[in-house]
Amino acid sequence: MPPFPAVIPQVATPPRVARRHPFLVLLGERIREERARKGMSRKALALDADISERHLANLERGVGNASVLVLLGVAGALRCQITDLLVGAPSG
Questions:
Q1: pLDDT in tens for each of the 92 residues of the chain?
Q2: What is the CATH number of domain 22-86?
Q3: Per-residue DSSP letters for 18-76?
Q4: Count of alpha carbons within 13 Å of 83, Cβ hemisphere only?
Q5: Where are its TM segments located (predicted)?
Q6: By CB neighbour count within 10 A (0-12 exposed, 13-18 middle, 19+ buried), where does 70 fall?
């Protein structure tokens, strides 16, 4: 008898529920608003910030967590200060 079964049974995993922390939601709104104000597409911002478009979309939806370096890249691509993304209320 082999040490491991020839077929490993698949166990269904529950779908991952994205948790949205209020701070991340607000941060995402600020990034999205600033991007829209600058007339940038998500693709252009992701390219300029050197992050994937998927990661940027997650940030804007408030489900992606960003390192300080990612936020610096996003702020640089938006030509704003990182504090503009972290402080104050969105204009909407």
A1: 555 555 655 655 555 555 788 999 999 999 999 999 999 999 999 999 999 999 999 999 999 888 999 999 999 999 999 999 997 655 54
A2: 1.10.260.40
A3: PP--HHHHHHHHHHHHHHHHTT--HHHHHHHHTS-HHHHHHHHHT-----HHHHHHHHH
A4: 0
A5: none
A6: middle
